[in-house]
Sequence to fold (408 residues):
Amino acid sequence: MIKKRFFILATFLMFLIVASNFISAQGYCQTDKDYYHAGETGTFYCYCTNNNERYQTGYIVWKLANGTILQSTSISSGNCKRNYFGTSYTFADDFNVSTNESHVTLFTLYADGTGSVPNWYDLESDKPYAYWNFTGTTPYDCLIKNIRYKDPINLGDVGAVEFEVKDGVTNKSLIYASCTAEGHDVSGAPLVRIPEMGQSFLKTTDKGTIAFIHKMDEIFWETDSTYLFEFHCHSLPNVTNSYNTDQVAFLSNGSVAGMKSCTFVSLFNTGSEDYRQFSTAEAIGIIFLTFFLFGLLIFTIIFQMRLSYKNKIGTDGTLIVPKTKYVKIGFTLVNYALFMWILNLILALSYHTKLTIFSQYFEFLFSALISLSYPLFIVIMIWTLYEIAKDWKFQKKTQELLSLGVRR
Fold:
């Protein structure tokens, strides 16, 4: 009876956790920084978690505390469950406002920054705005300026981003600064890093410029989608005998730049065309791996079923717990992970074979199972602790009864 109640409670708990991921609504926006400097570019981006927040039309307004509107852009939230949306604003080199006031960027119904976009201001968890401050630069700041890139980028084409890195105080070019870039989807999952494994950083040229080039041919990119890329540049002090001397940058006048750091975030859109070439060898490889994992999954399921789970009572009345009992419980997670891997491979194959309807179905199933994985792990842990506590309690009670029998 206790075991039955436990499984009912565990199932109900899993249902509540998973349902909360699909039912709860949240429209959320943020700026890439809390503080901005003159001459740099800020980005405001948003996403949502509920269907009624999608495809809502409004304006993204960059607004000062005194009411001055810096920029107002008409925009639709689009399919914000699957894609970011947002705008960027570049502060002029001579931009100057009070550093003691908080300014705001927000997604509103009207161009003057007023009005509530339908379904974006309904809940306390909705946050279609972000506050930011303006401040002067310090000797530890660098600035990413004169940003140029092609947008949108068709899949299979080569995407490129170029910009200049400047010293935050003198505005001189930062030469040989170390830079990296990372791309993320709307879930925040990292997709690419530039440079790739084997190289730590890219370097700015003797003009202080740098270009990031990447061919958009990986299987995870989707057409007509928006991704977020973060660009980071830095320089380290020129410390004698330091192993980080390759990360020392110089100013255009030849002096050592010292400790510097700067970041730029931008949204990138993919086009409606897909020029990626999916080779037969890749398809065969995915199919072969899928069948191999499917066979492995069947084997592990059969192996799990054959493991002993039930406790036994010894001839002397003591409780015998099979050593494989908790291994059998743990194999539930192993089999779940294998099934997720197989589903992910099927999803990749459906993308490349342009089976749009099937890919959307598998993507929904994959998202649902991802949401289920965390509560499943919690339930398995509770299940394991419950079995351990129950066995320990029964063993203790049995020993007490045996000890009483010996005394008699």
User: Anything to note?
Assistant: Helices lie at 2-23, 280-306, 325-352, 356-407.
